[in-house]
Hints:
Radius of gyration: 30 Å
Largest sheet: 4 strands, antiparallel
Strand order of the largest sheet: 2-3-1-4
CATH architecture of the largest domain: Up-down Bundle
Shape: elongated
CATH topology of the largest domain: Glycerol uptake facilitator protein
Oligomer: single chain
Number of helices: 16
Amino acid sequence: MRQIxxxxxxxxxxxxxxxxxxxxxxxxxxxxxNGLDGRQDLIIVxxxxxxxxxxxxxxxxxxxxxxxxxxxxxxxxRPPAAKLPExxxxxxxxxxxxxxxxxxxxxxxxxxxxxxxxxxxxxxxxGLFTNTSYLLVAxxxxxxxxxxxxxxxxxxxxGDQPLLKQSLWRYLVALAxxxxxxxxxxxxxxxxxxxxxxxxxxxxxxxAVLLPLAAGTAGALNLAQSERNxxxxxxxxxxxxxxxxxxxxxxxxxxxxxxxxxMVVNGLFLLLLQLVGINLSAALVFRAYGVxxxxxxxxxxxxxxxPAVLAGTVVIxxxxxxxxxxxxxxxxHSSRAQRANAEIQxxxxxxxxxxxVEANLxxxxxxxQGQNTLLGTIYVQRRAGINLSDADIRNRLTQDIQTRLLEQxxxxxxxxxxxxxxxxxxxx
Length: 428
């Protein structure tokens, strides 16, 4: 439920009461008041969220109308007292006008916005430079990417060209500031090589597109749901959106300084993938909650903008996915390393000499022309009664693993380090 305070000239209160009654208003009161414009009727209204925009549209016909919409939900109690559980159980989503207003209010001061972007750049740089994962989490909480990303989606759903341009500009500025801060820190401290966390976070999975789709859906649901109907905090949702943006932005800046342009390309690919993925899913969710080109107190939306921007988003997304799957394995390192690990386990399980203890695989980024290096460290334990030497087992197993990976079309250069372990001898 929402509370609305309505101020109209004296004598117009009855017309307002009729409109409120037609939209199932509850606990309504009409008071005589003195305002700056003279004597007025002040109507206090409590109305369900789904009726807010319809009521506001009807009230536009009342002259000299002044409205105060309280942004937080209220609990309306009325007789009989025994019906209390039924009266407060129905918690509804926000009205489209409230979703739109929330988006506009998030376009706040540039000073605070840029301050958070700079701080996020510093923290994400420290995390990547020192291989400290929890600092990346802190950077995700600080990064101001969620607001512009959600506003782009709201503008898409509304067909609002001015808001779309403004939100895209803030989004790009925030990313540019974070990238620049990370680059300056790497330049000042003379970073020469990428850290292991940079290499790990720059690798792309074949399912990378699912993260921005999930982030966009969660962000839109958080804005659309009433505060009493959400089990997830806004900070957690904002962190989910930033999780897909802050680390790649830091990697782009740091990798550019050390001349690792392959990592720069990966980072920019991820940033663009996040933007279009978040916009696609969030805009569709907002439309499902009734956000459209025209509404109460909102007339600047263009109906053609939503299908046009959505079609452009889908085209870009499909183009990125086509690029990802065509450029194998560069944009699929994370997933292909897991698949290769599964293949190695099968090779070892088929062996009569050893049993698998552990296998660790990762793509490295050495400057070797024309080579995608897959580095593997494999620990195996010889079976009882096997008389082959450790060197023979290592050489045969290495050849079997490399042959399997090449036959499966991994398009990599597999460099395997097999270590043969022996259990302690029985002293009895």
